[in-house]
Amino acid sequence: MEKNSLQNVWKFKLSAATVTLIPAAVGINYVAKAFAEGLKLPLWLGSLGTFLASMLAGPIAGAISGFINNIIYGLTLSPISTVYALTSIGIGIAVGILHARGWFASAKKVLPAAIIIALVSAIISTPLNVIFWGGQTGIAWGDALFASMVAKHVSIWIASFVDEFVLDLLDKVVVAYLAFLIYKQMPKRMIYFFKGNEN
After folding, report:
1. What is the pLDDT of residues 16-29, one digit of tens each?
2. Residue 12: helix, strand or coil by DSSP?
3. How far apart are CA 186 and CA 117, in angstroms?
4. Positions of the chain with pLDDT lower than 50, given as ranges
5. For residue 41, which phi and psi values (nearest 5 degrees)?
6. Which domains does the chain possess?
7. Of 35, 100, 117, 153, which is the most buried if we count CB atoms within 10 A?
8. pTM of the model
9. Rounded to whole angstroms, what are the CA distances from 2 to 29, 102, 106?
Protein backbone atom coordinates (compact mmCIF):
# COMPACT_ATOMS: atom_id res chain seq x y z
CA MET A 1 0.00 0.00 0.00
CA GLU A 2 1.11 3.53 -0.70
CA LYS A 3 2.51 5.30 2.36
CA ASN A 4 0.51 8.46 1.65
CA SER A 5 -1.95 8.93 4.48
CA LEU A 6 -5.40 10.30 3.80
CA GLN A 7 -4.47 13.26 5.98
CA ASN A 8 -1.76 14.24 3.51
CA VAL A 9 -3.58 13.45 0.29
CA TRP A 10 -5.32 16.84 0.14
CA LYS A 11 -2.12 18.81 0.68
CA PHE A 12 -1.35 20.84 -2.41
CA LYS A 13 1.75 22.94 -2.90
CA LEU A 14 2.46 24.83 -6.10
CA SER A 15 6.04 23.62 -6.12
CA ALA A 16 8.41 23.49 -9.09
CA ALA A 17 7.57 19.81 -9.44
CA THR A 18 3.83 20.48 -9.59
CA VAL A 19 4.27 23.38 -12.00
CA THR A 20 6.14 20.96 -14.26
CA LEU A 21 3.75 18.05 -13.77
CA ILE A 22 0.45 19.76 -14.55
CA PRO A 23 1.36 20.96 -18.08
CA ALA A 24 2.91 17.55 -18.81
CA ALA A 25 -0.30 15.82 -17.65
CA VAL A 26 -2.40 18.20 -19.78
CA GLY A 27 -0.21 17.37 -22.77
CA ILE A 28 -0.59 13.63 -22.21
CA ASN A 29 -4.37 14.00 -21.94
CA TYR A 30 -4.53 16.11 -25.08
CA VAL A 31 -2.42 13.81 -27.25
CA ALA A 32 -4.10 10.62 -25.98
CA LYS A 33 -7.60 11.99 -26.59
CA ALA A 34 -6.70 13.31 -30.04
CA PHE A 35 -5.15 9.92 -30.85
CA ALA A 36 -8.33 8.07 -29.80
CA GLU A 37 -10.58 10.45 -31.72
CA GLY A 38 -8.35 10.36 -34.79
CA LEU A 39 -8.51 6.56 -34.91
CA LYS A 40 -12.20 6.59 -33.93
CA LEU A 41 -11.52 4.25 -31.04
CA PRO A 42 -14.51 3.21 -28.87
CA LEU A 43 -12.96 5.02 -25.89
CA TRP A 44 -11.54 8.43 -25.01
CA LEU A 45 -8.11 7.90 -23.34
CA GLY A 46 -8.19 11.61 -22.41
CA SER A 47 -7.70 11.06 -18.67
CA LEU A 48 -4.30 9.30 -18.75
CA GLY A 49 -2.44 12.44 -17.72
CA THR A 50 -5.06 13.14 -15.03
CA PHE A 51 -4.49 9.65 -13.57
CA LEU A 52 -0.72 10.14 -13.50
CA ALA A 53 -0.92 13.63 -11.98
CA SER A 54 -3.28 12.38 -9.26
CA MET A 55 -1.06 9.41 -8.51
CA LEU A 56 2.08 11.52 -8.35
CA ALA A 57 0.90 14.73 -6.70
CA GLY A 58 -2.56 14.05 -5.30
CA PRO A 59 -6.18 14.66 -6.28
CA ILE A 60 -5.99 18.46 -6.56
CA ALA A 61 -3.14 18.31 -9.09
CA GLY A 62 -5.05 15.66 -11.05
CA ALA A 63 -8.28 17.65 -10.96
CA ILE A 64 -6.51 20.81 -12.18
CA SER A 65 -4.81 18.86 -14.98
CA GLY A 66 -8.08 17.34 -16.16
CA PHE A 67 -9.95 20.64 -15.97
CA ILE A 68 -7.32 22.57 -17.93
CA ASN A 69 -7.13 19.88 -20.60
CA ASN A 70 -10.89 19.92 -21.18
CA ILE A 71 -10.87 23.70 -21.58
CA ILE A 72 -7.91 23.69 -23.98
CA TYR A 73 -9.19 20.71 -25.96
CA GLY A 74 -12.60 22.34 -26.20
CA LEU A 75 -11.12 25.58 -27.50
CA THR A 76 -8.91 23.89 -30.09
CA LEU A 77 -10.30 20.58 -31.30
CA SER A 78 -13.71 19.74 -29.87
CA PRO A 79 -16.05 22.27 -28.21
CA ILE A 80 -17.97 19.38 -26.66
CA SER A 81 -14.98 18.62 -24.43
CA THR A 82 -15.35 21.83 -22.43
CA VAL A 83 -18.66 20.64 -20.97
CA TYR A 84 -16.94 17.67 -19.34
CA ALA A 85 -14.39 19.69 -17.35
CA LEU A 86 -16.48 18.83 -14.27
CA THR A 87 -16.14 15.14 -15.04
CA SER A 88 -12.37 15.48 -15.26
CA ILE A 89 -12.29 17.14 -11.84
CA GLY A 90 -14.24 14.20 -10.41
CA ILE A 91 -11.89 11.69 -12.05
CA GLY A 92 -8.81 13.46 -10.68
CA ILE A 93 -10.23 13.49 -7.15
CA ALA A 94 -11.32 9.83 -7.32
CA VAL A 95 -7.94 8.63 -8.63
CA GLY A 96 -6.02 10.61 -6.03
CA ILE A 97 -8.06 9.25 -3.12
CA LEU A 98 -7.99 5.65 -4.37
CA HIS A 99 -4.25 5.81 -5.02
CA ALA A 100 -3.61 7.15 -1.53
CA ARG A 101 -5.63 4.25 -0.11
CA GLY A 102 -3.52 1.68 -1.95
CA TRP A 103 -5.90 0.76 -4.76
CA PHE A 104 -3.11 1.07 -7.34
CA ALA A 105 -0.58 -0.94 -5.35
CA SER A 106 -1.04 -4.09 -7.42
CA ALA A 107 -2.50 -5.10 -10.78
CA LYS A 108 -5.29 -7.01 -9.02
CA LYS A 109 -6.48 -3.88 -7.20
CA VAL A 110 -6.48 -1.69 -10.31
CA LEU A 111 -9.63 -3.29 -11.78
CA PRO A 112 -11.98 -2.46 -8.88
CA ALA A 113 -10.42 1.02 -8.71
CA ALA A 114 -11.16 1.52 -12.41
CA ILE A 115 -14.78 0.42 -11.88
CA ILE A 116 -15.23 2.96 -9.08
CA ILE A 117 -13.67 5.72 -11.21
CA ALA A 118 -15.94 4.75 -14.13
CA LEU A 119 -18.96 5.05 -11.83
CA VAL A 120 -17.85 8.50 -10.66
CA SER A 121 -17.33 9.59 -14.26
CA ALA A 122 -20.69 8.23 -15.41
CA ILE A 123 -22.59 9.80 -12.51
CA ILE A 124 -21.17 13.25 -13.30
CA SER A 125 -21.40 12.89 -17.10
CA THR A 126 -24.93 11.52 -17.39
CA PRO A 127 -26.75 14.79 -16.49
CA LEU A 128 -24.43 16.65 -18.87
CA ASN A 129 -25.24 14.15 -21.65
CA VAL A 130 -28.97 14.54 -21.06
CA ILE A 131 -28.88 18.35 -20.87
CA PHE A 132 -26.60 18.99 -23.85
CA TRP A 133 -26.87 15.96 -26.16
CA GLY A 134 -30.22 14.34 -25.44
CA GLY A 135 -28.55 11.59 -23.42
CA GLN A 136 -26.00 10.42 -25.98
CA THR A 137 -22.21 10.24 -25.66
CA GLY A 138 -21.02 10.62 -29.25
CA ILE A 139 -19.48 7.13 -29.33
CA ALA A 140 -21.38 5.10 -31.94
CA TRP A 141 -21.74 1.72 -30.25
CA GLY A 142 -22.66 3.25 -26.89
CA ASP A 143 -25.25 5.46 -28.54
CA ALA A 144 -26.64 2.43 -30.38
CA LEU A 145 -27.23 0.83 -26.98
CA PHE A 146 -28.86 4.08 -25.80
CA ALA A 147 -31.18 4.18 -28.84
CA SER A 148 -32.13 0.53 -28.34
CA MET A 149 -33.04 1.12 -24.69
CA VAL A 150 -35.04 4.28 -25.45
CA ALA A 151 -36.91 2.37 -28.19
CA LYS A 152 -37.91 -0.11 -25.49
CA HIS A 153 -39.29 2.78 -23.40
CA VAL A 154 -36.47 2.76 -20.86
CA SER A 155 -36.11 6.11 -19.08
CA ILE A 156 -33.76 8.46 -20.93
CA TRP A 157 -31.78 8.93 -17.69
CA ILE A 158 -31.24 5.20 -17.20
CA ALA A 159 -30.43 4.67 -20.90
CA SER A 160 -27.99 7.58 -20.83
CA PHE A 161 -26.30 6.30 -17.66
CA VAL A 162 -25.90 2.80 -19.13
CA ASP A 163 -24.54 4.27 -22.39
CA GLU A 164 -22.03 6.38 -20.45
CA PHE A 165 -21.06 3.71 -17.93
CA VAL A 166 -20.28 0.93 -20.43
CA LEU A 167 -18.03 3.34 -22.34
CA ASP A 168 -16.45 4.69 -19.16
CA LEU A 169 -15.83 1.19 -17.89
CA LEU A 170 -13.85 0.22 -20.99
CA ASP A 171 -12.03 3.56 -21.07
CA LYS A 172 -11.13 3.72 -17.37
CA VAL A 173 -9.95 0.10 -17.19
CA VAL A 174 -7.59 0.69 -20.14
CA VAL A 175 -6.38 4.06 -18.78
CA ALA A 176 -6.02 2.76 -15.21
CA TYR A 177 -3.78 -0.11 -16.29
CA LEU A 178 -1.75 2.16 -18.58
CA ALA A 179 -1.24 4.61 -15.70
CA PHE A 180 -0.38 1.75 -13.33
CA LEU A 181 2.27 0.38 -15.71
CA ILE A 182 3.79 3.82 -16.35
CA TYR A 183 3.85 4.64 -12.63
CA LYS A 184 5.52 1.34 -11.78
CA GLN A 185 8.31 2.06 -14.28
CA MET A 186 9.10 5.49 -12.82
CA PRO A 187 12.26 5.81 -10.71
CA LYS A 188 11.53 6.12 -6.98
CA ARG A 189 13.46 9.39 -6.90
CA MET A 190 11.12 10.91 -9.48
CA ILE A 191 8.04 9.76 -7.54
CA TYR A 192 9.36 11.25 -4.29
CA PHE A 193 10.18 14.47 -6.14
CA PHE A 194 6.62 14.93 -7.40
CA LYS A 195 5.21 14.02 -4.01
CA GLY A 196 7.18 16.88 -2.49
CA ASN A 197 9.70 14.70 -0.69
CA GLU A 198 12.86 15.53 -2.58
CA ASN A 199 15.04 14.02 0.12
Report:
1. 788 899 999 999 99
2. coil
3. 23
4. 1-4, 198-199
5. -70, 155
6. 6-126+173-194 (1.10.1760)
7. 117
8. 0.91
9. 24, 5, 10
